């Protein structure tokens, strides 16, 4: 992948940048409800609060979004003095242990990844691998949809939890939301970083 400002410079005139909203947390909720028969609201109320209103949770917990994702993928107890931060950290540790120690039959094929790590963060690393596998499957389902629907696919690039789609198409968020609704994944359009500008000598060049 390239830096976001270079990506924006190259693509902002021809593409729209679509991103999953709250990708890994939403996928985690899907895994817990689908394969572990969890009532997330009742069993993991702080995590549910984060999913329901991320911005409000970040404000009351004093956490950044990246800190929440780090907690999700780490078995380390961070010891944050904020009670909301403590609670979601504890819930993530409980989730990591449950996912690692109780692989359902439907996910048994992925249990082989448990043995790639043996350090103190093996629970967190396994959960992250599982989330990435599902994330990739979701992206691939979107790519397949557009490849099947169009003679020439309008999807030009895949970037982590998002992709570029030709700006010649109308806003695709409703279509994307429909494709991935079984996973609880919704999409948004992210503004490109257009901080790189063409030099006036290039703009005014003659052929």
Give a structural overview.
The protein is an alpha+beta fold. The chain has ten helices and four strands. The chain has helices spanning 4-11, 23-35, 40-43, 45-52, 54-61, 65-72, 83-101, 122-149, 173-179, 200-203; strands at residues 15-20, 155-159, 162-166, 187-190. Strands 2-3-1-4 form a four-stranded antiparallel β-sheet. Helix 7 (83-101) packs across helix 8 (122-149). The radius of gyration is 20 Å and the shape is globular. The two termini are 32 Å apart.
**In sequence order, what are the helices and strands, one letter per element?**
HEHHHHHHHEEHEH
**Which runs of at least 5 residues are low in confidence (pLDDT < 50)?**
none
Alpha-beta content class: alpha+beta
Q: Could you tell me the radius of gyration in angstroms? A: 20 Å
Largest beta-sheet details: 4 strands, antiparallel
Number of strands: 4
Overall outline: globular
Residue-averaged pLDDT: 90
Number of helices: 10
Helix content: 40-55%
Distance between the termini: 32 Å
Strand order of the largest sheet: 2-3-1-4
**What percentage of amino acids are in beta strands?**
5-15%
Write a concise synopsis of the structure shown.
By secondary structure, this protein is of the alpha+beta class. Helices cover 52% and strands 10% of the residues. The chain contains 10 helices and 4 strands.
